[in-house]
Amino acid sequence: MNSLLGLLIAAPLLGAAVLLLGGRFVDRVAPVLGSALAGLSFVLGAILFSNLLGKPASGRAIDSDLFTWMHVGTFKADAAFHLDQLSMTFVLLITGVGTLIHIYSIGYMAHDEKRRKFFGYLNLFLAAMLILVLADNYLLLYVGWEGVGLASYLLIGFWQHKPSAATAAKKAFLVNRVGDIGLAVAVFLMFTTFGTFTFQGILHPSVVSSAGQGKATALGLVLLLAACGKSAQVPLQSWLGDAMEGPTPVSALIHAATMVTAGVYLITRSSAIFNAAPTAQLAVVCVGAVTLLFGAIVGCAKDDIKKALAGSTMSQIGYMILAAGLGPIGYVFAIMHLVTHGFFKAGLFLGAGSIMHAREDEVDMRKYGGLWKKMPWTFATFGLGYLAIIGFPGLSGFFSKDKIIEAAFAKGGTEGWILGGAALLGAAITAYYMSRIMVMTFFGKPRYTTKAEGGTSPEAHESPAVMVAPMVVLAVGSVFAGGFFSLGSRFLHWLEPVTGHSEGHSPVSTGVLTAATIVLMLLGMGLAWFQYGMREVPAAAPRSIWPVRLARRDLGQDDFNHAVFVRGGTRFADGLAEFDAKGVDGAVRGVAGAVGGGSSRLRKLQNGYVRSYAFSMFGGAVLIVAATLFMRAV
Amino acid sequence: MSATAVAAPAVHSLWTTAAAAPIHAPKIEYAQLSPILVVLGAAVAGILVEAFVPRRARYGTQLAVTLIGLAGAFAAVVGLAATGYATTKADLAAMGSIAVDGPSLFLQGTLILVTAVGVLAIAERGLEPQSREVPHVDAFAPQAAAVPGSEDEKAAARAGWSTTEVFPLTLFALSGMLVFPAAGDLLTLFIGLEILSLPLYLMCALARRRRLLSQESAVKYFLLGAFASAFFLFGTALLYGYAGTLDLGGIAKVVTGDAAPNAALNASAHGDALLLIGGAMIVMGLLFKVGAVPFHAWTPDVYQGAPTPITGFMAAATKVAAFGALLRLLYVALPEMRWDWRPVMWGVAILTMALGAIVAVTQTDVKRMLAYSSIAHAGFLLTGVIAGNKQGVSAVLFYLAAYSFVTLGAFAVVTLVRDAGGEATHLSRWDGLGRRSPLVAVTFALFLLAFAGIPLTSGFSGKFAVFSAAAKGGAVPLVVVGVLCSAVAAFFYVRVIVRMFFAEPRADGPSVAVPSALTGTAIAVGAAATLVLGVFPQWAFDLADKASVFIR
């Protein structure tokens, strides 16, 4: 089994190598090869899963020590992998959804000239993401962390001929660097504090408490910074919306289902550190609560279907971060929501991609409408995903999101009320903006004129089977996953040995909470129907009141960053440049001038007369003898 | 020679009690002296060749004799080392006159290899434009009265007149150099000094082109060299007056008090003055040979005036021999005087590094620039000498081996860049050389980078070794000055690279002669040594480290 673990990563890595280095010889096989290797990885994951299930609950882990990566003095880092229930969950999600999206891309990218590169990058992403979740130490995790960042950068900017895509890729990379610094500092801190990077050596309550609460808090905060960058949480959220410039399968896989949830993984994996640092936990829940509302509000105001979904992703990850910050009451539910979200959000994005595929990359929902008749499969799968995300009773989101809201209340005290309230409010807004998307896209009259009718738009049509099939599979997951996980608390028992679990004491009974959630959901849906279903949707966005305008501008995130960081940074750089030009260059030129001047003067001593040479020798000799005698005298 | 040195104190008794003290023939260990003897033998054979072999065959015969002699001498060094002389045992041969120990053998081996490479450049005859009447012309004047390129010269060349004497002269110089770092007493040291110097004075005067400059340089070198020899000899006399012996080990014993000083001296204060002044003057004689400030003034003029192959040989080999002798003197004869000579040497080292680096900045002639660069390198080497520990010795040994090959290579490249007037040594003529002759320019750039001490070249390994040894020996300020001077020096090395690669080529620029296999081999060996000692220096460090113990 140990060797399978290495093979699991090797398959997509090999794919990336072959596709990226193979040149045009592998052009034709690229889509099939990339998808097959992703599929192979999933099969290997499934075999490992069945192997884990065969073991007793307390000993479900497989370790694989590949080689010693670096060994200098007391510094030792291994390329070693650790598979337990937590990483197994991720492996199945990553390879499962990854394979589906590979298959979907065969259809979606069929006409793109750079297909080979696209599949190469996707394989690279899978390999990096698997390293991230399978690493048994923080240093190797960092490798995966940077690897997925690289893949994300390459795929956001995949159509780099578009300036907007190139800029978006750069933006994502830069903002992510801020978070990556957090992880780097965390790794440094771990080594200086514990002398090791391994999970086994650090993540134990007694080890963490031996370092003292101050260290634990510092570690927790830098880890949170890392998580904020990768998972697009406030204040490092600004890149996710622009990242939608990438091809839609990328948005589905990387910027919805897997990579952006790496922050949640990091926090859950580091639970021992956060459990020992209440201050850091407080910071985590604050970030989660703020982001879940931030993303939801932005999602309400966007007309671009992908950007609206991106806001939603941000918001849903906010839920997960919130849950992870709650400690042992929340970890399991954070991961459970992560998995169900992986299903329905990937499905929603693929649906959006299917629509864009039919409408020549039109993303403005104001130019959609009435598509349910033209694209029945897309409508059905998108609709099921929609019901799942708003928490319609019985579907996946209902189970996972309700648990988080419940856990937030169970935190207790004022804190619990505030967090629970925010989560409930978020649920209502989710219902509103998702219903808005649904209504604007599929219902009402078509707000476009096809070419046949003398307009510019193509006639909408259903996507090919190779694209529809993955959507169907994901829709099935969106419907049943939550219920399946919750039946007999299966997911809880599965994950508990890794993350630990404790029941909180909610001040509000479960029944009341469920009822409240459903009522708020219906309110949100009703409001959206009232606004967009009952009335005509204007073709251009009307000038609205300022909160709406602010939300359309992503609540001013870019204006804020520009004013504070870009301008401040520019001013700082200008100051440095001036200091460099005047101070440093001045000193350098001064020294150079002095040396040159000294040189011109000294070379005059070399006058070519042997008599003066002899005299200088004589003078030197006298000086040396005198100096020697003087040294003895003193 | 050593017999005189040892027997000298006994002269009076010899006269008075001639019957009672029979003269014993000195015991000569021929095997241990074989490297020197082989070279001397080859040199004498060279003179015989000059006398008896027909003119036309002389060049080939001389080259063969020289190279065979060098090969034999090197085999002798390797043989001695293989029998354990450098590492497990050491001996004072010829009644204490010649030390056969690690540093001797290491430096002798280096010197022989350096001379072999140098001889290849000296023997080059393919650089001048050739014609049917005058097939081969070398870098040396065939006849003093013949103007270069004139009918007279052509006639002389056709008649087979060429200065094949340089080969035996080189071998004689080498034999002096082999004695120099191995000398066990002061008189042998002096004889080595003279044997190595006199042929060099001659060879400096032999240039075929720019003859006046060449002859002037020879006269300057001779006059100043004689002056320095006088210092040396006077210092020898004073030390003998102090210690009553010329033996380096014997002097050390007197300094430490293990042996009685000269009976004629009763007041120790006077004795100290003799020791201090004598020691200082001997050191000065050696500092002249290495070209340290304030005894450096001859270097630029001689380097510029001498025929370039000779300059390369001289710059590389003399420095090796003279630093070897300096190390032996300071570590064997005067180690107990460390607290007296160290501050003065500090001053000399700092002045040498600074003056060499700074004055080189404004030089416009490539040979003069390399001369000042060699002064700066003498300063860097002095920091290693001053370190005063075993690591310092091995670092200096390594540095010498590394530096000498870089120097040979660099001067060999200089012989290639020519115009109608011979070598084009003015730096402005080198503009854009990299575009015309990329291979030559890249090779020269490699040597310059090695001089500058850029990593992956032997210059870096050597500089790192001497500086770290000096820092370990407590000379941190000296290291700081050394690093600063290296920075200044890097400027003028890199400036040449910039000129070669980033300046527009001149329309009337020099052409690069295609060398024969001789110079080609010399340059290739220099470049290979530079790279190998830069990338894989460890084996050479180990070798130098094993060979770093002096016999006392």
From TrEMBL, chain A:
<feature type="transmembrane region" description="Helical">
    <location>
        <begin position="248"/>
        <end position="268"/>
    </location>
</feature>
<feature type="transmembrane region" description="Helical">
    <location>
        <begin position="610"/>
        <end position="631"/>
    </location>
</feature>
<dbReference type="Pfam" id="PF00361">
    <property type="entry name" value="Proton_antipo_M"/>
</dbReference>
<dbReference type="InterPro" id="IPR003945">
    <property type="entry name" value="NU5C-like"/>
</dbReference>
<dbReference type="GO" id="GO:0016020">
    <property type="term" value="C:membrane"/>
</dbReference>
<dbReference type="InterPro" id="IPR001750">
    <property type="entry name" value="ND/Mrp_TM"/>
</dbReference>
<keyword id="KW-0472">Membrane</keyword>
<feature type="transmembrane region" description="Helical">
    <location>
        <begin position="118"/>
        <end position="135"/>
    </location>
</feature>
<feature type="transmembrane region" description="Helical">
    <location>
        <begin position="508"/>
        <end position="530"/>
    </location>
</feature>
<feature type="transmembrane region" description="Helical">
    <location>
        <begin position="379"/>
        <end position="399"/>
    </location>
</feature>
<feature type="transmembrane region" description="Helical">
    <location>
        <begin position="317"/>
        <end position="336"/>
    </location>
</feature>
<feature type="transmembrane region" description="Helical">
    <location>
        <begin position="89"/>
        <end position="106"/>
    </location>
</feature>
<feature type="transmembrane region" description="Helical">
    <location>
        <begin position="465"/>
        <end position="488"/>
    </location>
</feature>
<dbReference type="GO" id="GO:0015990">
    <property type="term" value="P:electron transport coupled proton transport"/>
</dbReference>
<feature type="domain" description="NADH-Ubiquinone oxidoreductase (complex I) chain 5 N-terminal">
    <location>
        <begin position="69"/>
        <end position="119"/>
    </location>
</feature>
<dbReference type="InterPro" id="IPR018393">
    <property type="entry name" value="NADHpl_OxRdtase_5_subgr"/>
</dbReference>
<feature type="transmembrane region" description="Helical">
    <location>
        <begin position="181"/>
        <end position="204"/>
    </location>
</feature>
<keyword id="KW-1133">Transmembrane helix</keyword>
<protein>
    <submittedName>
        <fullName>NADH-quinone oxidoreductase subunit L</fullName>
    </submittedName>
</protein>
<dbReference type="Pfam" id="PF00662">
    <property type="entry name" value="Proton_antipo_N"/>
</dbReference>
<dbReference type="GO" id="GO:0012505">
    <property type="term" value="C:endomembrane system"/>
</dbReference>
<feature type="transmembrane region" description="Helical">
    <location>
        <begin position="141"/>
        <end position="160"/>
    </location>
</feature>
UniProtKB/TrEMBL annotation, chain B:
<dbReference type="GO" id="GO:0048038">
    <property type="term" value="F:quinone binding"/>
</dbReference>
<dbReference type="GO" id="GO:0012505">
    <property type="term" value="C:endomembrane system"/>
</dbReference>
<dbReference type="GO" id="GO:0050136">
    <property type="term" value="F:NADH dehydrogenase (quinone) (non-electrogenic) activity"/>
</dbReference>
<feature type="transmembrane region" description="Helical">
    <location>
        <begin position="219"/>
        <end position="243"/>
    </location>
</feature>
<dbReference type="InterPro" id="IPR001750">
    <property type="entry name" value="ND/Mrp_TM"/>
</dbReference>
<feature type="transmembrane region" description="Helical">
    <location>
        <begin position="438"/>
        <end position="456"/>
    </location>
</feature>
<keyword id="KW-0812">Transmembrane</keyword>
<feature type="domain" description="NADH:quinone oxidoreductase/Mrp antiporter transmembrane">
    <location>
        <begin position="183"/>
        <end position="486"/>
    </location>
</feature>
<dbReference type="GO" id="GO:0008137">
    <property type="term" value="F:NADH dehydrogenase (ubiquinone) activity"/>
</dbReference>
<dbReference type="GO" id="GO:0005886">
    <property type="term" value="C:plasma membrane"/>
</dbReference>
<feature type="transmembrane region" description="Helical">
    <location>
        <begin position="476"/>
        <end position="498"/>
    </location>
</feature>
<keyword id="KW-1278">Translocase</keyword>
<feature type="transmembrane region" description="Helical">
    <location>
        <begin position="30"/>
        <end position="53"/>
    </location>
</feature>
<feature type="transmembrane region" description="Helical">
    <location>
        <begin position="310"/>
        <end position="331"/>
    </location>
</feature>
<protein>
    <recommendedName>
        <fullName>NADH-quinone oxidoreductase subunit N</fullName>
        <ecNumber>7.1.1.-</ecNumber>
    </recommendedName>
</protein>
<feature type="transmembrane region" description="Helical">
    <location>
        <begin position="65"/>
        <end position="85"/>
    </location>
</feature>
<feature type="transmembrane region" description="Helical">
    <location>
        <begin position="166"/>
        <end position="183"/>
    </location>
</feature>
<keyword id="KW-1133">Transmembrane helix</keyword>
<feature type="transmembrane region" description="Helical">
    <location>
        <begin position="510"/>
        <end position="536"/>
    </location>
</feature>
<feature type="transmembrane region" description="Helical">
    <location>
        <begin position="343"/>
        <end position="362"/>
    </location>
</feature>
<feature type="transmembrane region" description="Helical">
    <location>
        <begin position="393"/>
        <end position="417"/>
    </location>
</feature>
<keyword id="KW-0520">NAD</keyword>
